[in-house]
Design brief:
This protein is mainly α and about 210 residues long. It has one domain. Helix 2 packs antiparallel against helix 6, helix 3 packs across helix 5 and helix 3 packs antiparallel against helix 7. The longest helix has about 40 residues.
């Protein structure tokens, strides 16, 4: 596949959006950091590959479901509103989560399971929250409608998002392998707050935008 400027731009957009999400420090990020401190960089990178694979799987599922449905104009408008609302809810959760509150349940399908393989454990930890696919479905719904993206373009956006996961967590793995000191909770809370506000703003922009 020849990468045109538009295709590269779409990958870059996905990468930027993915980095924004990565800045909301969550359990997966802390998990990779811990592996880096205990098992070294190589062990943490095994974990990063598992996380990236699970993210890619959820993203492909979300895109496949949305892209096959969004065809008619009326359906596009419905998906735009639904997608924006989903993103706004996740953004609101990030904001109020800073204050110890929540509006979304913590769904962990494998909470009591113990895996010897870092790769498998990373996949399970990442995939253990089915709400992830709901979030990505919301993001891609709004992107398809907002920019009139074709199926191939939305896959490129998703690919950029996956790249951001691998890139960001590789940095976390490197930091963890060198030092066990992580960001203070105040900084983590601030990052989560900022990301939540940005997601809410993104959703409101989509809802307010005319056809």
């Amino acid at each position: 596949m020849i990468l045109t400027r538009r295709k590269v731009n779409m990958i870059f957009k996905g990468f930027k959006f993915g980095i924004l999400l990565q800045l909301a420090i969550g359990p997966v990020c802390l998990f990779i950091f811990k592996i880096g401190g205990n098992k070294g960089f190589i062990g943490a990178e095994i974990g990063v590959s598992g996380v990236t694979l699970a993210d890619a799987f959820y993203i492909v599922l979300a895109i496949s479901g949305i892209a096959s449905c969004v065809e008619r104009e009326r359906v596009k408008n419905i998906f735009k509103i639904m997608g924006a609302l989903i993103v706004a809810i996740f953004g609101l959760q990030a904001v109020i989560g800073v204050f110890g509150l929540k509006i979304l349940p913590n769904i962990n399908l494998f909470n009591e399971m113990n895996f010897g393989s870092l790769f498998l454990e990373s996949i399970v930890i990442t995939a253990s929250n089915p709400l992830t696919i709901l979030f990505w479905a919301g993001v891609f719904s709004t992107k398809i409608v907002e920019e009139g993206l074709q199926r191939r373009e939305i896959y490129l956006f998703g690919f950029g998002s996956v790249l951001s996961t691998a890139f960001f967590l590789t940095i976390i793995a490197a930091i963890g392998s060198v030092t066990r000191y992580f960001l203070p909770m105040e900084i983590i809370s601030l990052l989560n707050l900022v990301v939540g506000i940005v997601l809410i703003g993104f959703a409101l922009k989509i809802i307010a935008k005319k056809r």
